[in-house]
Amino acid sequence: QDAHEAIRPTNLANDPETIKQYLTSEQYRLYKLIYARALASQMSSAKFSGESITISQNGYDFTATGSRQTFDGWLKVYGAYYSSKDTILPALSEGEILKAKELKANQHFTEPPARYTEARLIKQMEDDGIGRPSTYAMIIDTIQARGYVELKPSTEKSKTKVFFPTEQGILTVEKLDEYFSSIINTKYTAKMESDLDRIAEGEADELEMLQAFWNKFTPLLDEAYEKMEKKQPEKVGELCPECGNELVYRNGRFGRFISCSTYPSCKYTRQINVENKEKPEPIGKLCPKCGNELLKRKSRYGKYFVGCSNFPKCRYMETLEGEEIVSKSSSSEKKPAARGRRRSTK
Questions:
Q1: CB-CB contact of 281 with 262 (8 Å)
Q2: Parent domain of 139
Q3: What pTM was computed for the model?
Q4: Hey, which of 108, 140, 325, 341 has its CA 20 to 30 A from 57?
Q5: The domain that contains 184 carries what CATH number?
């Protein structure tokens, strides 16, 4: 992966204790962490030995399996910030007499894997070689915007939010597994990420890679069109005001909406009325472009912004702080898009 420059001290001679007097408490703790991390990255590896210890008492054997640290290495300076799931065993010698402090009988039941939090999902993508640091946030936003998952607390009392698959998400995964399993899987995606890196480094030709993918993808798509069962959309119970046919619910990029059942012959669509939907709120300012009232609005993504009350005739927008928002369509009208192939430089 192409990495960004690390945050590190400009001079290791400026150790945290030396400059502590010039820092606030928060600055000192942050600098101490950065300093320890930077220094640890230049140190030797810590060394551990895997061990299994058997302790005998009253005719019963108790076994403890774990590891024992034989060399501090980078943990010498970073140990306070590092936690390991491994069981660290104390140094013991064969035949040593130990005194039992207490005996506990614990019963364990098999539990399903924990649901993904945003952090755990990103860690899983890192381990599987999927995506890049710059795309993780976009991937998480996309699976929510398309209605594949919902992010909500696991219990009523829990503050930690986890992902729950929706009916649409489960159906999508089932059908993709059925018809596209050879190209939609973690191994194939990780290989594609590696191929893109090779293209960026000039070690592979992008057209050859694209052609190879297309030759594999086209037959799968043709088979899916031919054999995949089409799920009938749910009916609204109303007739289309433009052509008189049934209206149905559909799922789009930005969630559920209503459209004509004869699409694309009839392109009638409308949003679903949401109960208790927030109404635009006047902010006491006038639009600098047309002079109409400005309103505080909520976007489809749940974020607030200020827009003109004369929308869509006037598309002026600004942030809550008063900074103008330039839409992509507006910016594209002012500046022609540059065309050409991206070339990597060495």
A1: no
A2: 118-220
A3: 0.48
A4: 108
A5: 1.10.460.10
Mean pLDDT lowest among 12-16, 56-60, 145-149, 340-344: 340-344
Shared domain for 252 and 325, answered yes or no, is no
Mean per-residue pLDDT, 171-191: 89
**Residue 134 domain-assigned?**
yes
**Structural domain total, the chain:** 3
Confirm whether 290 is domain-assigned: yes
The amino acid sitting at 212 is A
Q: For residue 110, is it within any domain?
A: no
Using DSSP's 3-state secondary structure scheme, residue 277 falls into coil
Work out the number of other CB atoms within 10 angstroms of the CB of residue 209.
Answer: 15
Separation of alpha carbons 209 and 220, rounded Å? 17
pLDDT score of 1? 46
Whether residue 330 sits in one domain with residue 310: yes
Average pLDDT, the chain: 84
SS (H, E, C) 144-193: HHCCCEEEEECCCCCCCEEEEECHHHHHHHHHHHHHHCCCCCHHHHHHHH
Q: Rounded to whole angstroms, how far apart are CA atoms 115 and 185?
A: 20
Contacts of 278 (CB under 8 A, 6+ apart): 298
Whether residues 243 and 150 fall in one domain? no
Residues 6+ apart with CB under 8 A from 253: 145, 146
Residue-wise pLDDT tens digits, 192-210: 888 888 998 999 999 999 9
